[in-house]
Write a structure and sequence with these properties.
Blueprint lengths: L1 H13 L17 H8 L4 E5 L14 H16 L8 H9 L8 E5 L19 H15 L3 E5 L6 H11 L15 E4 L4 E4 L2 H6 L3 H9 L4
Parallel strand pairs: 1-2, 1-3, 3-5
Antiparallel strand pairs: 4-5
Helix pairs in contact: 1-5, 4-8, 5-6
Length: 218
Amino acid sequence: MEMDYFIRSAANIILPHIDDNTSLPLLMPSDDEFLEKRRNSYQLMYIGQENPGWLNWMEEFDLEKIQQKYIDQLKHFMNLGSKTTTPFWGFLREIKNDLNEDNLIWTNCLLLGSKYGNKRAHNYKDIEKISLLNLIYLYKYFKPDCVVIVAGPENPYYTIIQYFLEEIDSSLRGKCPDKRNLLVSDLNMNIHYTYHPQALARGNVFGEVAEKVKTYVK
């Protein structure tokens, strides 16, 4: 299967860069059931920064367990109702309207984070290329109805996002949010780019931006 081959290839590329100071990678399930649910339904692609602390309890790399945790995470946060634990998932809750976990493609600019603390992996430069390829591949495979990017716009996220936007031929290439324009959009492709929700919350503009993004999601 095309998707399964890509995910396993990505895992093999990332595996040598996993150490005692990195999280495990955020890799999407590639089984038939997961893909079939997304084949004929509305899809929202939600792109964050990285995944620090992801699966720290897991003693060794196990792709199937990583993929199952991905599914469990979506179900948990998409069904929390008014409760949430982080701005990242809280923002998704605010914009998702009536969508559920089967309507969501969640990924990040970087597929590894730090093992401890809310920061990038120390060796993030080693996985920038495969992380970018992951964004491009998922977009072209799923052809999402809406894309919401909540990352940066500082580097390395800005550079990765710009390469991604260029590859998919979006009018947003070369653009990014700033203090005057907290949200920039490609309305033709329904792609929307803003700051990470944690930064939005610090600036007291979380709700304002979420309300705008929500109007573009089914």
